[in-house]
Amino acid sequence: MKYAAPALAALAVAEPAFAQEAAPDAVGGGTAYILNTLLFLIGGFLVMWMAAGFAMLEAGLVRAKNTSTQCLKNIGLYSIAGLMFWVIGYNIAYPGFEGPGLIGMADGGPIYWMQGVGEADVETGYSVASDWFFQMVFCATTASIVSGTLAERIKIVPFFIFVTVLTGIIYPVVVSWEWGGGYLDAAWGFSDFAGSTLVHSTGGWAALIGALILGPRLGRYGADGSVNVFPGTNIPLATLGTFILWLGWFGFNGASQLAMGTVGDVSDVSKIFVNTNMAACAGVVVAIIATQLRYGKADVTMALNGALAGLVAITAEPLAPTVGHAIIIGGIGGILPVIFVPLLDKLKIDDVVGAIPVHLVAGIWGTLIVPWTGDATFMGQLVGVLLTMVWVSVASGIVWFILKATIGLRPSAEVETAGLDIHEIGVEAYPGLANQN
Amino acid sequence: MKYAAPALAALAVAEPAFAQEAAPDAVGGGTAYILNTLLFLIGGFLVMWMAAGFAMLEAGLVRAKNTSTQCLKNIGLYSIAGLMFWVIGYNIAYPGFEGPGLIGMADGGPIYWMQGVGEADVETGYSVASDWFFQMVFCATTASIVSGTLAERIKIVPFFIFVTVLTGIIYPVVVSWEWGGGYLDAAWGFSDFAGSTLVHSTGGWAALIGALILGPRLGRYGADGSVNVFPGTNIPLATLGTFILWLGWFGFNGASQLAMGTVGDVSDVSKIFVNTNMAACAGVVVAIIATQLRYGKADVTMALNGALAGLVAITAEPLAPTVGHAIIIGGIGGILPVIFVPLLDKLKIDDVVGAIPVHLVAGIWGTLIVPWTGDATFMGQLVGVLLTMVWVSVASGIVWFILKATIGLRPSAEVETAGLDIHEIGVEAYPGLANQN
Amino acid sequence: MKYAAPALAALAVAEPAFAQEAAPDAVGGGTAYILNTLLFLIGGFLVMWMAAGFAMLEAGLVRAKNTSTQCLKNIGLYSIAGLMFWVIGYNIAYPGFEGPGLIGMADGGPIYWMQGVGEADVETGYSVASDWFFQMVFCATTASIVSGTLAERIKIVPFFIFVTVLTGIIYPVVVSWEWGGGYLDAAWGFSDFAGSTLVHSTGGWAALIGALILGPRLGRYGADGSVNVFPGTNIPLATLGTFILWLGWFGFNGASQLAMGTVGDVSDVSKIFVNTNMAACAGVVVAIIATQLRYGKADVTMALNGALAGLVAITAEPLAPTVGHAIIIGGIGGILPVIFVPLLDKLKIDDVVGAIPVHLVAGIWGTLIVPWTGDATFMGQLVGVLLTMVWVSVASGIVWFILKATIGLRPSAEVETAGLDIHEIGVEAYPGLANQN
To answer: How many structural domains does chain B have?
Structure first.
């Protein structure tokens, strides 16, 4: 969503380009190449850092007896995502479609071959390795979302197998439709700047289907309709995770501008920083006020989820809104967990960290509101949401079912009750501290 | 505090400009605009990250029963600061004074309207949104300081109301006097490069007045003059918080150069990085040696506060000192908590995390020592310190008194004894871990 | 290990230059100077952040009763490293050798005098202060490694004295041989891009000799050959530390390109980011699979060490390998802790956090494999490894022995059993949480 910007001297004027498409045209020389690449590198390490944010958020919100498992899952899923996105994912995501298509692959086979030492394809306007790195960390983010919802009751082996398919195939196919220039982009003008749908809803659907197939944690929902709260072990850690994610989101949204080699581009990146920040601020304040009014107490986990939901909501279009728009979009995002966390519990869908309200519901909200400020139609956005829902739900469901039917998804009731850490990992999270659970 | 620097080719020579004034003149083209903006963005996300640092530092130094509350306060105050600095703060801070004034507001009313998509005012030399973001995170820092001192005994609603006034009015007025080009800058040549007084002392005075009005935690000081130590629950978390703050300070001080579009500017940013780092190193070593000599043990919380005090001390002038100067300035900063933490206890002023010695006392020290190396007079610096003291103390005092007289500041003794987490937040910080307090 | 890269317009072609030598020649103007300096600053703050990573990793892997001590050691060693690298270290590391030499010092005496405000030596192509900062944080990393191995049984005063010598003399001498252009570089064409040997093995040898002289923790090894596992207190904290180190490694390896002022340089930095990331990913996956197969459980601490060992392994040559190479190099790195952690226990060498397998063994592996992809000979690499071994072992051994013979290294058995926190630091790490150990 860029517009021509005032440019000086030898710097070329930026052509409008869709965010996260493979080749922004805004290059006017070696300096622009360097600056565009630098944006990917900085954005890339910030989004990589989000892996730590998810790890801390989830480690803080599970019970002590499952914390080591959650830590392992998070560092493992990031690593699998990295490998799979190289082995096959990137070339599915960016297939070089000729006209609308639903699945394809770049020429040269599944593996993405980067350029050699010192080689630089100056026509792309940035280092292809920097772009690959930036795209890879988005892929990992998608997997992180699943990890949170399904915590405390899934064995690590089937979880890692699911992550392998999700990051190698399911997510890249969704990306190909939009950022890869495929069906949603070509036929519907679907708009998803940094991934409210492509990243967050994809993770959210995979998590939701997983939660339905896996079932809730033992003892979570009583036969009489009662809900047992299993409080997280370490709220400061969850708070840290949220701050890490917030920080990483500047890279997530800001670097999705894909260029900062012109005055207009870097000004847009700045605007994205502000809007991203303000949507999160609004999400926090709304969640605090809502829980204070509803429960008489300001629930800290809702404040954290409010920040994240605000961030997810602004992700589909962080550039076009004014600050006022961003505050409204993020603020409405912040109310969604307050509404949907109890609602999921009524439906007996056990989402340990609230990832479905935050990433799926707020992701849909953010995607559908794009036409308010950006260049998209409501129908196009709705088609994008629905197509993603169908594909991710069906594909995830098949994988989950195969895993359930073969190696099984859940540990025995004894293992789940004792905690996965001892049986699955062999390392307790807080020896010398934990005195219960 | 910049001087003309050797510049090459088409890059213009930097004109001397006061740090954090609105418009450095050092632009020589689009590349300089991009680089200046990038400095604000990198500096901005580093200082934003300091919000996490304060949260972890404070969460680590309070008792388990008040930890969730402290987490909520920190993410809440950052969010309020963001909103208020947009609604009114920035336009008070940078009012475009004509001649010396004490309070004003930029044309166009309280709300700061950023530029539209793709718009870039190249005459400023940087994206106005990037500058706003960088200034906003400083505003949040000020509020973080108050949160630490008043922990464990203030209700969240009056706390958040105070933060609203502090970030919307009290802090921006102080900023307007100096970085906004107002009274202190115009009439006294006051010099405060990155905010030893404007940020840290402002937070410190607000915290001190709050502590006086709020009173100490229950049981903290015995009637017989004894001091009960309430040890913090999580020292590694406090250590993490200190490292986060240290990291963020490279953005806090380094990006306060406000430009890196010339060879001279980026060299000065580099020098600031080194001086900032070395002042903190010296603060740590001095605090370790001092506590080892005085108590026979090297107190880790003093080492952490030594780092922070060294950082606060160098903040008023991180560029002009040589490395040797920086070590002395930071090293003396590091001794201040060792002296003032026990002194405050003697005065029965209950400062939970030691924020007053670190931010207020070291901030005054750093401000008054500027004339040793930088371009300022002792009298001008003293006037700046005193004027900030009077304004922040009186304004804060009025707000605190109104809150005390209306909705009240403190929870009941029962709530305070049981811990604020259960009654104010409804979420315990370490369920399954905490076995006392 | 750089090669000439395609460059555009007025940007000069990069001359081949050894990584981390003092003066890359690839400057074509003020913009290149700014960008090169910016690379050092970003790389510098990322590597500085690794100090927090080591602190968290070690704090998470020691027992509760020694955690405050570990926090103090980590912030203290970083601070000492900063001071010593300025007082003497840098000028030993970069002595300006004329021909091969084994020890020397730059003209002008031990202290490194940076340039004044606004001064910039444009012929170097970057700000000398930014280079110094970047080199300093590497020095601190070396000391962090020692801290982990020797945890829980060394008094803080002798530890800090050792760090003073290590960072002031032992490490800088090793650096002078290679990055300083000395013996290993001139006579053997030794190649160590970012420090598998210079940083990680140096720390590892110092740690190993320390562990041998210090002996194991009380009760760690039974007289009957049994090994008592002392589990770490806080696995999420150790996980956080690993993620921090991984993040910091992008600066560690990426900015060791030493320049991004040309299209070729920034493309190489991007490639280094990818290779660094993928080596770590492979290390994690290999460690998970290996422990799952060997023990039937996927050991989370091994996964963390697998990431770090993969990172250490790729550090000697992160640019020349293809992604496939990087995965193999990192993957083999990841298996090393799985093999060597139990092996060290058989030898009754007590390495609390597994730093010797991770930093020393993987560092040797990474150094010796350089000829596979990079420009080096196996013999040259072997000489580099052996010379480093001899120098660091002998020099460290002498310092450790002197300390042992004078002020003593270990606390009394009573103090060690009670935990160092109470007696050495006076501040417990988790009051209100810890209920045993």
So the answer is: 1
Closest CA to B42 of C30, C41, A127: C41
Does A63 touch chain B if contact means CB atoms closer than 8 Å?
yes
What is the least distance, in Å, from the CA of B338 to any CA of chain A? 27
What's the full length of chain A, in residues? 437
Question: Which residue range forms the structural domain that includes residue C167?
Answer: 32-114+122-425
C421 falls within a domain: yes
3-class DSSP state of B126: coil
In a domain, A173, yes or no: yes
Residue of A nearest to C295 (CA): A426
Q: Yes or no: say if A434 and B433 are a contact pair by the CB < 8 Å rule.
A: yes
Residue B16 falls inside a structural domain: no
Average pLDDT over residues A95-117: 70
The continuous run of DSSP H or E covering A235 comes out as: helix A235-254
Structure confidence by residue, pLDDT tens digits, B67-79: 999 999 999 999 9
Would you say B241 and B55 are in contact if contact means Cβ atoms under 8 Å apart?
yes
Sequence-distant (≥ 6) Cβ neighbours of residue A220 within 8 angstroms: A227, A228, A230, A348, A350
- Using the beta-carbon criterion (under 8 Å), do A122 and C240 form an inter-chain contact? no
End-to-end CA, chain A: 50
Which A-chain residues 157-196 have CB contacts (< 8 A) with chain C?
157, 160
Half-sphere exposure for B85 (CA within 13 Å, toward CB): 31
CB of C297 within 8 Å of any CB in chain A? Answer: yes
Q: Are B3 and B16 in contact (CB under 8 A)?
A: yes
Query: Is C432 in Cβ contact with B437 (below 8 Å)?
Result: yes
Interface test with B, best of C37, C45, C111 (most B CBs within 10 A): C45
Residue A6, domain member (yes or no): no
CATH of the domain at B179: 1.10.3430.10
Question: B2: nearest CA in chain C?
Answer: C118
| Contact residues, chain A, for B240 at CB < 8 Å | 240
pLDDT digits (tens, 9 = 90+) for C163-218: 999 999 999 999 999 999 889 998 999 999 999 999 999 999 999 999 999 999 99
Q: Taking CB atoms and an 8 Å cut-off, how many pairs form between chains A and C?
A: 214
Interface test with B, best of C72, C88, C126, C422 (most B CBs within 10 A): C72
Hey, are the CB atoms on A236 and B60 less than 8 Å from each other? yes
Q: What is the DSSP string of A363-375?
A: HHHHHHTHHHHSS
What distances in angstroms separate CA A65 from CA A409, A434, C295, one per listed residue? 18, 9, 20
Read off φ and ψ for residue A221, nearest 5 degrees.
-120, 125
Write the pLDDT tens digit of every residue in A204-227.
999 999 999 999 999 999 999 899
